[in-house]
Sequence to fold (409 residues):
Amino acid sequence: MSFDVERIRKDFPIFEREVNGHPLVYLDSANTSQKPVQVLDVMRAHQERYNGNVSRSVHTLGTESTEAYEGARARIATFIGAASPDEVVFTKNSTEAINLVAHSLGQMLRLGPGDEVVISEMEHHSNLVPWQLLCERTGATLRWFGITDEGRLDESALDDLVSERTKIVSLVHMSNVLGTINDVSGIAARARSVGALVMLDCSQSVPHLPLDVSSLGADLIAFTGHKMLGPTGIGVLWGRLDLLAQMPPFLAGGSMIETVTMGGTTFAAPPARFEAGTPPITEAIGLGAAVDYLTGLGMEAIHQHEQDITRYALDALTSVPGVRIFGPETVEGRGGTVSFGVDGVHPHDVGQVLDALGVEVRVGHHCAKPVCSRFSVPAMTRASFYLYTTTAEIDALARGLDQVRKVFG
Fold:
């Protein structure tokens, strides 16, 4: 069956609107995705009919809410190939998930001077700053992989970077700026050989690629709901259950305890240990509905559609004079995120002209300032695609860039 993007778009009410008198062309899904009515309806129905707190009450509403919340956890676990729902921890976003891991592993591993944490120059600030802070607190050393001119990880010094001193390797799986999909198998194998743990920031890959955590080579991954048709305020940390069971909690309060006395506290087993307080219940249920929607379409089909759209976009952008693409210039090993510059025009000016035409892109350093520094630019313009993106929207982007060139000479 062919991938019917026009039928899919009918599930997204936002595509009925105009922006500045033009049909909405939404090319900012790497920032946040739009939501289908199937997700919106599930969240609305829960609030209207089943609203109650989870894991606290024996009354009907509390039971129904708990069943919906835990049912979402189970479906998300299946979606990513987790061995058990207990390996799925709900957080408010990827940032919180990574901070949780940095805090908890720092304690568990007793990180200190002489130990090393390895990341890359390609990271979103959410997978950079928490590790900087951890190293500052503990005296450990932060090291990183560089980026090649083609926008891929430079693994030429792998054996030096990941050594017997390395305790944690934390890398982005798919770059939110360059679109690069990192094959981390070699790095993960090297990390395992020296006894280091591996974490992946999968914020961009889980929404767009068929992904099975059992084959990634990672011990932990993080991703977020609002980039995969779900609501904001909900993210996921997946970890091997045996590892989660060893990790101390990040936040303390209700729901994450086993028993409490005035003299001390013992903690619940994962995932409850890491879900202190009232969780984002409706948001988790909404993410479960988003996973159902994605599963119904098929992640292989979604990935193929995005490959086709990205190939079309790369051809279209390279045909516009003065446009420079950052990152891989073919669809091999890259996803549907394309960052670029227009000669002589600041990205903010590019974004304003495009917005006047109803074309929504993101401009700036995309919470990845070292990537911009690597390519010697203050900022970039980024177009990012998803299952609802059409070739007509790419054509509108190309026409918009022609208008940018006319406006700025």
In short: The CA atoms of residues 118 and 309 lie 34 Å apart. Residues 60-80 form the longest helix (21 residues). The two ends are 46 Å apart (CA to CA).
